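Running low. Invent one:
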Amino acid sequence: MVKTLIIDDEIHCCESLQWQLNKYCPEIEVIAVCHDGETGLKLIGEVQPELIFLDVEMPGMNGFEMLRALTFINFDLIFTTAFDQYAIRAIKFGALDYLTKPIDKDELRVAVDTFLKRTRRDSLKQLDALLTHIRKSNDLSFRKIAFPTQHSYELVPLNSIMCCESSSNYTNVRLHNGRHMLVSKTLKEIEELLDMPPFFRIHHSFLVNLQYAVRYIKGEGGFLVLSNDVTVPVSRNKKEELLKIITHLSA
């Protein structure tokens, strides 16, 4: 049995989740429930949960603030949240599981199954990626993303990503040091995560980090040359927008 703690300020959500866990997830033992982050911090020390269902949007101390207040994390997490784009994006940066309210029983079962298969090492890597992402600093050098690969989760600093190339249901990520990794996400999913400067989708198959751009070769769509002579095509419908960005950079 997995010792589990539920932290959510909405009492009816706690009751509903506990009922669903009892009915559909017999491996899960709910040992405590609380309704605010400060109480959650105390309970974590007292009951030593293996898994926590944590609401993101709580008054006073929200879920992210509660995590930042911990000096040591030795449990796994499944977030629960209303449809909050900022929260969901941050959670995805860590490749962590989340459930949107109202919680669907089938999605709950999938999240629990994923937790049961996950190693402690991967969990800690994913939490590290989440916590670095939700820091207030906007400096990309302080932010990491957790990329799921075939055998592990790779924590990658955002400023080390040179370009991402679509490979069917996977994405080939090229880093500035020449390293490649095949990530278990589509390029569209990665684009949603990296929807910020200096990342730009220049082609249906390519997303690039423009800080590594060194030359634009003119043509119907043209080509963008990155560091280490990496050359990627530019689609015709992205050419004008790219040139505007380049012009702005050189101004």
